[in-house]
Specification:
Layout (H helix, E strand, L loop, with lengths): L4 E9 L2 E6 L2 E6 L1 H8 L1 H4 L5 E6 L7 H14 L4 E4 L5 H9 L4 E4 L2 H4 L1 H11 L4 E10 L2 E6 L4 E2 L4 H11 L3 E6 L25 E4 L5 H8 L6 E4 L9 H11 L16 H4 L2 H4 L1
Helix pairs in contact: 8-9
């Protein structure tokens, strides 16, 4: 049986991790805060993947973001995907060289299809996650790019079908309306994915407790559920959520906590905090 996945998404902005609500950002804390409140020695055994997205609204500092990715790879043995602001092949290369296992692309799916094809050709489909931000309008959905500012003049269903035809490895399907609300996923977004599309779907936007995660991950069309809610899953929130999903017979990987990784020394490096 193919295992389903529980994914934790971290939103990064100029050295800090952020809480997002409908794409409005609130600063929460830096790496030390994250380690103190999430105890990544344990979290690493509670998630299947970690996604780190640079959501900075100003000019992005790729070098500094890469340093934070390196810090997370030091303390988290699960696969890490990273993205945010990838505009050229060298951006993707820098993220992967910093320890990311996959890259996440969004705006370039629309702006630069040649780059998308180049990345897939260079690194393989399994390395590329296509992030799609959706906003509900009456009885339809709009695809939003550039941090949710620009609306594309194409139907959401056609857009999803087009990027799947590129050979994208996975789709990160995110609801702007439910983002950060903790009120549960907007499951209607799944109706936009043609039943003939076999690309794995990561459902995101709105999870605030394990009941929401369960509601999403139970669906046949969903391969993974993600949450970026820093407050609702603080402390033991993620370990307890995983235990609850396994108790409901969700096919998640199970492993024992075979080792501990001390992160505090790494997180205190001057190069990270500068």
């Amino acid at each position: 049986m193919v295992k389903k996945r529980l994914i934790f998404t971290l939103l990064y902005d100029e050295g800090y991790f952020m809480l997002s609500r409908n794409f409005r950002l609130q600063k929460v804390g830096d790496l030390q805060w994250l380690n103190k409140h999430y105890n990544f020695q344990r979290i690493a055994f509670s998630i299947d993947e970690l996604i780190m997205l640079d959501v900075s609204r100003k000019e992005k500092n790729l070098e500094r973001f890469c340093e934070h990715i390196k810090a997370m790879t030091y303390g988290c043995f699960v696969p890490i995907a990273s993205g945010g602001g990838i505009r050229q092949a060298s951006d993707a290369k820098a993220l992967l060289n910093s320890g990311a296992d996959k890259i996440v692309i969004n705006t370039v799916l629309y702006d630069d299809t040649n780059l998308v094809k180049e990345l897939i050709s260079t690194y393989g489909s399994q390395c590329i996650i296509g992030s799609i931000d959706l906003k509900k309008k009456a009885d339809s959905f709009s695809v939003m790019v550039k941090n949710g500012i620009q609306e594309l003049k194409i139907s959401a269903s056609d857009y999803i079908k087009n990027i799947c035809n590129f050979g994208i490895g996975e789709i990160y399907l995110n609801s702007i309306d439910k983002d950060g609300t903790g009120q549960g996923y907007l499951l209607e977004t799944l109706e936009l994915v043609d039943e003939n599309i076999k690309t794995p779907i990561i459902l995101a936007g709105g999870a605030g407790n394990h009941h929401h995660l369960l509601e999403g991950i139970r669906l046949k069309r969903v391969d993974a559920v993600a949450t970026a809610n820093l407050f609702n899953f603080i402390g033991n929130g993620l370990p307890l959520a995983r235990e609850a999903l396994i108790a409901e017979n969700i096919a998640l990987a199970e492993w024992s906590q075979a080792r501990e990784i001390k992160l505090k020394d790494y997180f205190s490096q001057d190069s990270i905090n500068a």
